[in-house]
UniProtKB/TrEMBL annotation:
Organism: Saccoglossus kowalevskii
Pfam family, one: Zf_2nd_IFT121
Gene expressing this chain: LOC100368525
Keywords: Cell projection, Cilium, Cilium biogenesis/degradation, Cytoplasm, Cytoskeleton, Repeat, TPR repeat, WD repeat
Protein name per UniProt: WD repeat-containing protein 19-like
Main location: cytoplasm
SMART domains reported in the protein's UniProt record: WD40
UniProt KW Repeat keyword: yes
Chain ranges of the IF140/IFT172/WDR19 TPR domain: 664-806, 844-1183
Gene3D superfamilies given in the database record: 1.25.40.470, YVTN repeat-like/Quinoprotein amine dehydrogenase
Every WDR19 WD40 repeat domain range: 361-637
Sequence ranges assigned to domain IFT121-like zinc finger in this UniProt record: 1279-1325
Keyword Magnesium part of the UniProt annotation: no
Subcellular location(s) per record: Cytoplasm, Cytoskeleton, Cilium basal body
């Protein structure tokens, strides 16, 4: 708090002083002390008058208007009156004989009440000068009193009584109290029911201990409130608010109580404001503040929140304590007296005066001091002392003006500091003033004076003209209600709605606008190109002087006190409107898709008693009553510094704020944190709305909306604003706005193109009539197609007819229209016209469409004809069938492919009894069951029916054939077809009834179920047919039963088949018990009849016991050899060899050797047959060397060996074997045909013989005889060639494609020239399939299998 002035104790003399502020205005302060002088000061501390008193003052007070000061003293009964207007003193004789002890002016009237030390009362009416003495009002000294707002007077006296009197002094109420009363006040107690009585309660401090509440409406029930002893005595109390009482106690306590009957006695607030003592309390309702003083400080509280300490004023030099505390009525000044007789005056509330220019602010910081600051640009503040207490302040770029009434002082704000330029008087009281760099615009009494701030006159007349000008030019014009001054313009508004722009540079009016009602206020931005005005209806508008566009401000509060434009250059379109409670943020967008707009961005609560003066970047600088400035951030601009820390909901609201304020860069950052497509789309739509095409492209590219990016890039370079806005409105799906903008642009055809693209044909036709009449036919055709689609055939026909151009180059278009006319004519009932048009046109599809329409209309003959003409024979035939025109159907049948139509035709022919034609039609319709039915039931042609059943595998057909054969008692055929029709149960019963089970069993084949096989098996079991019973038990996997029946089969020719089946059963069952059972049977354990070893071999093979099978195979082969069945023995060994090889089991040497010898024997016949006797002889020599393995044919083999060797020139070998034949045991067995020849060979021996040719060993390349199979060098058994019996060569290697046995490639190929089969496996082999094997390692080193 700033101290305004200080009065020392020398002014009043030592001791306590009395003082009181002038009522209402507060311009004067009256003080008096022990020096018997009453001093009257102005509010700045200047002494205005002195009044000498005969003695000490006993009372001092101002009347209700502050015009008259009354003073009484203890030396005489004269009342001194001082007039504030004339500064003259007058004396009033009270007429009382005793000393005057108390005086008090009425709150509402002109009465002055004066009490005496003996309890008498004088009521003096200052207006009428009438004095009314009332003697004996009290019996002792009157010490206190109060006037009510109803002009009742309450008085308290040392006689402990309280009287309530009217304005004439008549006593209305009287009551007694226990102790001496003081501090009487009138107020209104809080009650549940409000009464219209006004101040109905008198409060009295009784004995400085209790508070006595006396209700005038309920005098019999007064309330007395006592307080805690620790508080001390009651020093003072004040009523405020809705029945609240603030009380100060001597021990420094400061409490608030409520007088509401429910809360009475409760302390709402309590604080010990002062440590030692409290001397006074004061309340200022205009400030909404309360103050208490004590010790050496004053503490000020806010009445709305008592717990908050508003200010503390400490007076270090006041050691003796403080005295009384009093505020002026307006709350601007607070005076406090001290115990030693001094007085301090503090400024608690300033007139809120200020002005801003750009970011600079000038505001009142004391009653005679203005401070200029620029917080935005961090300029040093400048303080300027003012001559008088100003009523207005104006700030320009280089000047400051302040003044009051009709006078203004101008100050230059230079680099050297502020200096006074001049003071100037005007023709009337100044309402407001505005400054720019050169001129001042002064508004007074509905006129404006525009004049230069500096410089008087000039050299020429032009300069004199430009020096000053008064607006309006004549009194006849309307009255000016408001004005504003910018760098270039003087702008003012009048009471008839006129808004004028005066261009200072040209010294003439450049713009005039007429509003419907009078203007109250104008608020231009710093350039004057944007302006807000408020009219007499309290409506706000944004005005653009460039094009006279006026936009009403939405949600504009009628209580708005002022408007501030944003000073931050990037937010030029933002302004705020403010009233007492709120700040409304608006955004003015000069360019949007929908044209200029004003939007309410949001509201911000305005703190109490703060007045906005400047706006910069969303921060409002406000003035307070204490002569300071505060900053208030608008809720719309309250952006968080770290958006990453915000929750999603706050991020979304922050994004919406950015979008409203057009802060798209900040919105981009927020969208990154939100990371939702919805947010990005909101940003994109906002940028399009504000026609920020480049930014919109950036957003859409970021979210991958390629279509929008491409569309926006196409229009990026459009310079016509309406055309660009039209495209953007179209992209935002506001098509009506888009059309309006297109029509207002340089390319109105864009509106037509848009409507066509949107299929808005009505609008497109309307536009085409005005813009492009040549496009009407094409739009009509497209519109007709849409109308046809939605079923509006009448209008479609009209538009199709309008669409016909008859232009040579539009043949296709006209055809489409003609087709539409044909269709619509049929739809509208003009069938003849439609059909004729369809027939004339070559379009097949049109014929089909018209035919379909006619078919739906049940016009079958015309429909079928069109189908037929269009080549849609299936549809034509179907429609002819519906019209029962079988003749036409028959004609079309060869060209019909639809089975359904053939079937319908067949049914018709069947009904007519023409069965052959029906059968043929059914066959064409692929309904073979019906063909079978006709063949059996009507044509009696079972052969054809059976043939069809076999071809089609028809189940129903098979059933019909089965029933046919059943009627003929051909049960075998009937069973066959029942099985084919999946009627196995019926087939089984028929087979059972008619003894055809074997037929059934044969027919059922492998497709039957286990249950079917079981049924057959049980049937044969009952018939004692063990073989068939076993066979079918095997098929249904009942192996024990199957084996049992196979072993029961009698030993006949079928025996071998039964044993084979038994082996198969055991092989599938893989059951040891069944295996042993069969082995016992084969070994003869059951019937003492051992079975052939081949069955044992097959059993082992079936059980996959290959080693046992191999051993058995060798035994079987030996028996076959002994019996002379060499081919059988060879086949047994070969099959076993391949089986072991396939299972990668090592081949026994004995088996391999026996197979080689047997194969060599078989090769002899092949070579001899081919005439290659040398190869045959070599093989016979190998066989003869193992002659013991051929006991049945020793002599024939040796004989053949002798003859073949002799024939081949192997004379020595021939002699050797001939000598062997001459042994006694063989000699008599020689065939007589060869006996003499052999004997001759022996008698005349010829031992000449060429050595056998050598060839390389495939393992070690050692040269050894061709037929030698064991290499003497590396001791390896060499594989032999299956074609020659020789050992194999590495570079002439192949194998049989069937059995994979190796052979010499060249020799095998020669052999296949004459032979067809492989000598080893006897399978057919082609020489083409032989392939040379370059790496025979797999054959030379076969993988050794399991032992």
């Amino acid at each position: 708090m700033k101290r305004v002035f200080h009065l020392s104790d020398k002014t009043h003399g030592h001791g306590t002083i009395q003082f009181c502020w002038q009522k209402t205005l507060g311009n004067y302060l009256a003080t008096t002390g022990s020096n018997h002088i009453a001093n009257i000061y102005d509010r700045h501390g200047e002494l205005k008058d002195e009044i000498n008193l005969p003695g000490n003052s006993t009372g001092m007070g101002w009347d209700r208007d502050g015009d008259t000061l009354a003073i009484t003293n203890d030396k005489n009964s004269v009342i001194i009156l001082w007039d504030a207007n004339t500064h003259k003193t007058s004396h009033l004789d009270s007429g009382m004989k005793d000393t005057l002890s108390y005086l008090l002016w009425s709150k509402v009237g002109r009465q002055l009440a004066v009490g005496t030390t003996k309890g008498n009362l004088l009521i003096y009416n200052h207006q009428t000068s009438r004095k009314v003495p009332i003697l004996g009002k009290h019996t002792k000294k009157i010490t206190c009193g109060a006037w009510s707002s109803q002009n009742l007077l309450a008085l308290g006296s040392e006689d402990k009584t309280i009287t309530i009197s009217n304005a004439d002094g008549d006593t209305i109420r009287q009551t007694s109290v226990r102790m001496e009363p003081s501090e009487i006040q009138f107020s209104e107690m809080k009650t549940d029911e409000r009464s219209a009585a006004g101040e109905n309660t008198v409060s009295i401090c009784v004995g400085k201990k209790t508070l006595f509440l006396y209700n005038l409406n309920d005098p019999d029930n007064p309330i007395e409130l006592a307080f805690q002893q620790r508080y001390g005595h009651i020093i003072a109390y004040k009523w405020y608010g809705d029945g609240y009482v603030m009380i100060g106690f001597s021990h420094g306590y400061f409490i608030v109580i409520s007088t509401h009957i429910k809360e009475i006695g409760q302390e709402l607030f309590q604080a010990r404001n002062h440590k030692d003592s409290l001397t006074s309390v004061a309340v200022s309702l205009s400030l909404n503040k309360a103050a208490s003083c004590g010790d050496n400080c004053i503490k000020i509280h806010d009445l709305s929140e008592m717990k908050e300490m508003y200010a503390i004023i400490t007076m270090e030099d006041e050691t003796k304590g403080l005295g009384k505390l009093e505020w002026t009525d307006d709350g601007q000044l607070l005076a406090v007296s001290t115990q030693r007789g001094s007085l301090h005056t503090y400024l608690t509330k300033l007139p809120v005066l200020g002005d801003a220019f750009g970011t600079r602010i000038a505001y009142l910081t004391s009653l005679l001091e203005v401070t200029v600051v620029n917080h935005v640009e961090q300029e040093q503040s400048v303080t300027i002392g003012i001559e008088v207490e100003p009523a207005f302040v104006a700030l320009g770029p280089y000047h400051l003006a302040a003044g009051m009434n009709n006078r203004a002082w101008f100050y230059l704000l230079g680099d050297k500091g502020p200096e006074v330029l001049k003071d100037k008087e005007y023709l009337g009281t100044i309402n407001s003033m505005s400054l720019n760099s050169d001129y001042a615009a002064v508004f007074f009494e509905n006129k404006i004076q525009l004049h230069l701030i500096e410089g008087e006159g000039g050299d020429g007349t032009t300069a004199e003209e430009r020096e000053t000008r008064l607006f309006p030019d004549s009194d006849k014009e309307s009255r000016i209600m408001c004005c504003a001054l910018t760098a270039d313009f003087l702008i003012y508004g009048t009471d008839n709605g006129g808004l004028y722009y005066f261009f200072i540079e040209d010294w003439q009016f450049v713009n005039e606008f007429r509003h419907v009602v009078g203007l109250r206020k104008v608020y231009p931005d710093h350039t004057g190109t944007r302006m807000v005005f408020v009219d007499d209806k309290s409506d706000g508008y944004v005005y653009n002087p460039v094009n006279d566009a006026v936009l009403e401000i939405p949600n504009f509060s009628p209580t708005v006190k002022g408007i501030l434009w944003e000073n931050w250059p990037l937010d030029r379109g933002i302004f705020i409107a403010y009233d007492d409670d709120k700040v409304y943020t608006y955004v003015y967008c000069r360019e949007t898709v929908g044209g200029p707009k004003v939007m309410l961005a949001g509201t911000t609560k305005l703190p109490f008693a703060q007045y906005p003066i400047m706006l910069h970047n969303g921060e409002v600088t406000c003035q307070t009553q204490s002569g300071k400035t505060t900053s208030l951030m608008l809720s719309t601009h309250n952006f968080h510094e770290k958006p990453s820390e915000l929750p999603q909901s706050e991020l979304r609201s922050a994004l919406q704020q950015c979008l409203v304020l057009k802060r798209f860069k900040e919105a981009w950052v927020l969208c990154h944190f939100l990371n939702s497509k919805e947010s990005w789309l909101d940003l994109a739509k906002a940028t399009i709305q504000h026609m920020e095409v480049d930014f919109a492209i950036r957003v859409y590219r970021h979210i991958g909306e390629a279509g929008m990016v491409l569309s926006l890039q196409k229009i990026r370079g459009v310079e016509d604003n309406n055309l660009l806005a039209g495209y953007l409105a179209m992209f935002m799906e506001d098509f009506n706005l888009g059309q309006d903008l297109f029509l207002a642009s340089s390319n109105p055809m864009a509106a037509l193109e848009m409507r066509r693209d949107l299929l808005h044909w009505d609008q497109a036709l309307q536009l085409a009539k005005a813009l492009a009449p040549d496009q009407i036919p094409y739009i009509s055709k497209e519109y007709a197609q849409q109308l046809e689609f939605v079923g509006d055939y009448g209008n479609a026909l009209i538009h199709y007819e309008k669409g016909v151009t008859r232009a040579e180059n539009q043949h296709e278009h006209d055809e489409a229209c003609a087709a539409g006319i044909a269709r619509m004519a049929i739809r509208m009932g003009d069938i003849r016209r439609g059909v004729n048009m369809a027939l004339k046109m070559p379009n097949r599809m049109l014929k089909k469409e018209c035919a379909a329409i006619l078919e739906n209309m049940k016009q079958y003959s015309e429909s079928a004809m069109l189908y037929e003409k269009g080549g849609y024979y299936d549809k034509a035939a179907a429609v002819y069938i519906r019209s029962k025109n079988w003749t036409k159907v028959g004609e079309l049948l060869p060209q019909v492919s639809s089975p359904k139509i053939h079937a319908q035709y067949a049914k018709a022919k069947e009904a007519d009894g023409r069965y052959k034609e029906a059968a043929l039609a059914y066959e064409n319709a692929k309904e073979f069951d019906n063909v079978i039915r006709i063949q059996l039931d009507y044509l009696n042609n079972p052969e054809e029916a059976v043939k069809i059943v076999r071809e089609t595998q028809s189940i129903e057909g098979a059933k019909m054939v089965a029933r046919f054969f059943q009627k003929l008692n051909d049960f075998s055929s009937a069973i066959q077809f029942l099985v084919m029709s999946k009627c196995n149960d019926e087939a089984f019963q028929m087979a059972q009834q008619h003894g055809q089970m074997e037929v059934y069993a044969e027919i059922i084949g492998p497709d039957a179920t286990s249950e079917d096989y079981q049924s057959i098996a049980l049937y044969f079991e009952n018939q004692k047919n063990h073989f068939l019973a076993g066979k079918f038990f095997l098929l249904c996997c009942q192996y024990p039963k199957a084996l049992k029946h196979f072993l029961k089969c009698p030993v006949t020719n079928d025996d071998s088949q039964a044993i084979e089946m038994a082996i198969e059963t055991v092989g599938e069952a893989n059951d040891d018990q069944l295996t042993h059972q069969l082995i016992d049977y084969l070994m003869g354990e059951v019937d003492n009849m051992p079975k052939d070893a081949k069955y044992l071999f097959r059993l082992y093979m079936a059980l996959k016991q290959y080693r046992e099978a191999a051993r058995t195979a060798i035994i079987i082969a030996r028996e076959e050899q002994n019996a002379g069945n060499y081919r059988n023995a060879h086949d047994v060994l070969f099959s076993m060899y391949t089986e072991l090889k396939a299972h990668k089991i090592k081949i026994p040497a004995e088996m391999a050797n026996n197979l080689m010898i047997l194969h060599s024997y078989i090769l002899v016949k092949i070579h001899v047959k081919r005439g290659d006797h040398l190869k045959g002889a070599r093989m016979l020599i190998r066989v003869a060397n193992n002659i013991s393995k051929f006991p049945s044919h020793i002599v024939p083999i040796l004989t053949s060996t002798v003859i073949e060797c002799h024939r081949s020139g192997l004379r020595n070998s021939s002699f050797s074997y001939a000598a062997m034949l001459m042994r006694p045991e063989y000699r008599n067995k020689i065939d007589l045909k060869y006996k003499k020849k052999i004997e001759a060979i022996v008698r005349k021996p010829d031992k000449t013989e060429e050595d056998e040719p050598n060839s390389a060993c495939p393992y070690c390349k050692f040269q050894l005889p061709e037929t030698e199979l064991v290499c003497p060098e590396c001791k390896n058994n060499i594989p032999y060639c299956i074609a020659t019996g020789r050992h194999l060569l590495r570079d002439d290697f192949t194998s049989c494609p069937r059995c994979d046995f190796p052979a010499l490639h060249s020799e095998f190929k020669k052999l296949l020239d004459t032979e067809e089969n492989c000598p080893m496996c006897s399978d057919r082999v082609s020489a083409e399939h032989l392939k040379m094997i370059n790496d025979p390692s797999l054959y030379l080193h076969p993988d050794v299998g399991d032992d």
